[in-house]
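Data availability excerpt. The first of two example chains:
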Amino acid sequence: MDKKARRQALLSAARDVFAHKGYHDAKVDDICLAANVAKGTYYLYFKDKRAVLEELVDGLFGRIAIAILRVDVARDVRGQVQHNIRAIVAVFLDDPALTRILLSYAAGLDPAFVRKIGSFYSGVRTMLRSALEEGQRMGIVAEGDADFFASVSLGIMKEVLLEASTSERPRPREEIVEELFRFLAGGYLRMDGALRTPSDPGASTG
């Protein structure tokens, strides 16, 4: 096994161990056992269990950033927004073990762990806020506090995705996408704004 494959095997093993035992109770020995490697091999790649958690979380954040496309108001806005919702849902539910770690952690067990998870959510909220502010300029998001909109959206997504990643009978993904879109369209999304360009004198952002 080459170095890249070995690193990925350790990441996968750590993710499964964290999901099963919880980050606080998991030990490097558990990860090594799951990956079938010696402890010395583990330390060639990661200095401790926090390092492997950070790489897992950063990898997920990177996949979210890549998945979200910039909306073009000259094209089908509804379809593009649904695509972005679908892409975010897929990133999380394609990795249910890591999703459960991120969404169901117990605050206070490990300050470093809580800080890392907090930084993940802060990054996602910032990403959402930027997208919403751009949407306001385009006229497809209502006027208002974009940071508040982002926090509400993130909270809703967390609950929906946690249920989907832990339920024995989860909702179909496309149903999740449609319901999330319907909820947002009834709130701050303004699909009629997509019929005008931002330079149109009749455009409205409210």
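And the second chain:
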Amino acid sequence: MDFNAHKTSILRLFCQERVVGIAFLVSEQYALTCAHVVAEALLISPTTQSCPDGEIKVDFPLLNSTNKFSARVVCWHPQSDLDSEEAREDIAVLKLEQLPDSAQSTRLLLSESISNNPFKVFGCPKGVSFGVWATGVLSEQNAKQWIQLQDTRVTGYAIEPGFSGSPVWNEELQGVVGMVVAAEYTRKTAKVAFMIPVQILVKAWGNLEMLA
């Protein structure tokens, strides 16, 4: 899969008219995002244990279309308590009843040899609802088995709130290796974020294994 095809898999999630995060297609009907993004869209707590049943409005910002579509949660792993080392948290699977003809599911990679590979990720930080791209290099995993994303540039956008749920595109391997889940923005000198690798996403939703 080339990068232009990958871009058609990217969705924005809305709370009324406000963009709250990103998701990405992994099959014709299903998309992945973070539970805390869904929670913000539905105005519920991200630690809600039961699977939410509200309707979420989404669109495909890189298809040059203003049409919105409906999605519902079919798999739910809420946020855990602060400092939890549970890897399978903050994950949601959405089912779309309809989507644009030109939208494609992205390519998922289970490769574990990704350290120091360059990545690219799309997000909608506050005040930039049309979206921007952030780049950097993949680092190592932490105790949660999440992988650190390192911003290596002096200029450009860093990953921040608004990027959550976005697919992490590995530029060397030409595929998605994880999903943005958190960013470090309390330490001003730290230019890092974290992704949930595809290996953990597969464990969270078994149907994903046949797609990776």
